[in-house]
Amino acid sequence: MPASTAAPPKSLTAPSAHAVRPRGRPRKTLQERDDGNRRAALLATAAALFRSQGFAATTTRDIAAAAGMQSGSPFYHFKSKDALLFAVMQEGMRAALARQQTTLQQLAGQPPLAQLRGLVQTHFAVLLGPDSDFIPVMLYESRALNVAQRAELAALQSQYEALWVPVLAALHTSGALRAPVGLARLLILGALNWSVQWFDPHKAASLDDLSDAALALFVGPGAPAS
């Protein structure tokens, strides 16, 4: 009997080359990568101008010119100047949250005082370090946001502030922090945030100096340093 020449069942047939679907997300095209880079540059430029000139006084034409774009190019990424402002604040809070999470991961197992110093120094870096325009814009221009935008930022702020609570609670338990934890958190962050009004990077104080001075004010004797 001759061998059957019938085609094998489809379930046993090797898939054709064009039917194989690649795993994971498709690679971004050069255009998509360029758009992402331009969006990041646009956010950084807008943050710097919103901080130096104020939101109301800054036009999208100003932002486009500073970013090296055509005057209408910002609207390719953001539908309005208000949307761009919100994106600046959102980006700032997400980046700050990620940096503080990394700080605490690196200091896991360290005494609470060391962890608080890390939180303080990272907060100063977010406010005063390189590319630090995002959070100051949020601190002083949030009145321009709508209700929904404020609620979304408030949720990010709550996550950020929640990172401080266990550290402050541990210091309070040890007696090194005498103020109630909730009030201490508000007072500490308020004092640190005000530094954007008076800090001069051309003067002698470094972020290390500021962090040491802040801890001397906030935490009393008795906190174990190691």
How would you describe this structure to a colleague?
The protein has 226 residues and is mostly helical. It is built from 11 helices and no strands. Helix 1 crosses helix 4 (81-106), helix 5 (112-128) crosses helix 8 and helix 5 (112-128) packs across helix 11 (207-218). The protein is elongated and about 55 Å long. 25% of the residues are buried.
Structural features:
11 helices, Tetracycline Repressor, domain 2, 62% helix, elongated, disordered N terminus, mainly alpha, 226 residues
Tell me the span between the first and last alpha carbons: 87 Å
Task: Write down the CATH class of one domain.
Answer: Mainly Alpha
Main beta sheet: none
Shape: elongated
The fold-level CATH name of one domain is: Tetracycline Repressor, domain 2
Summarize, please.
By secondary structure, the chain is mostly helical. It has helices at 30-53, 60-66, 74-77, 81-106, 112-128, 134-141, 147-162, 165-174, 181-193, 195-198, 207-218. Helix 1 packs across helix 4 (81-106), helix 1 (30-53) packs across helix 6 and helix 4 packs parallel to helix 7 (147-162).
Annotate the secondary structure layout:
Layout (H helix, E strand, L loop, with lengths): L29 H24 L6 H7 L7 H4 L3 H26 L5 H17 L5 H8 L5 H16 L2 H10 L6 H13 L1 H4 L8 H12 L8
Helix pairs in contact: 1-2, 1-4, 1-6, 4-5, 4-6, 4-7, 5-8, 5-11, 8-9
